Input
Amino acid sequence: MPENTIPAFIYALDQGVTTLELDVVISKDKRVIVSHEPWMDHLICTDSEGNEIETDSKESYNIYEMEYAQIAAFDCGMLPSKRFPEQVKLQTTKPLLIDMIKASERHVKGVTHYEVNYNIEIKSAPSSDGIFHPGVKEFSDLVYEVIDQYLPWGRVIIQSFDIRVLQYWHNNYPSVTLAYLTESLKPIEKQMENLAFTPDIYSPYYKLLTKSKIQKLHELDMEVIPWTINDQETMKTMVSWDIDGIITDYPDRAKALGLTKDLEEIK
Output
């Protein structure tokens, strides 16, 4: 299913995932949008007329400079995917976070019958403040307001590569579960020193992990949830190393290994 779209989240729920992982950006009219990039990516989207968009679409189709009505007119599901050749093509759009939560919760209550968690990445960086997104405070507060209306915080994780975001949430919303996304090669102690607190979850690029490093992270009282594991052999290895969860583009592969909920048992 097309990434970061409502049909993709519904499909993941039908595979029994325990957590929906997603990315959010901000539009010109201050709406929280589910999107991996803060622009309309030419690889996955076509414009309101069905035309392919420029290869370098960052400046021309910057979501932070577009109102949601414009964004919703783009199709982001019909182009064939080079990265995911098995992906089903269907007409769909980048949803509002509000609409994504509502659709997922309806499906949970009416079909899958189990509560799901939400792992929400705030996509920001110091170099793109005011260009592709608002500053940390405004960005964070907009996301908080949406989630606070629709979900209990016990089912929400906020994650980011931007340590400023994590620090802001730690200081202003201290009860929220935080995950530190990283691909840093620095020692763990140095990373924690830079962050200035110990997050609930350490979420590294999976190739940076070893069994002993996972043990050390657990000793520091952090759960370990690596990204992005798409092959089943690596999933099996990581599970044997005692990770606390995985982020994957292929929930069906995780399901085949018994790593998701058995919906038949629930029903």
Notes: Strands lie at 19-26, 32-34, 117-122, 156-160, 177-182, 201-204, 223-224.
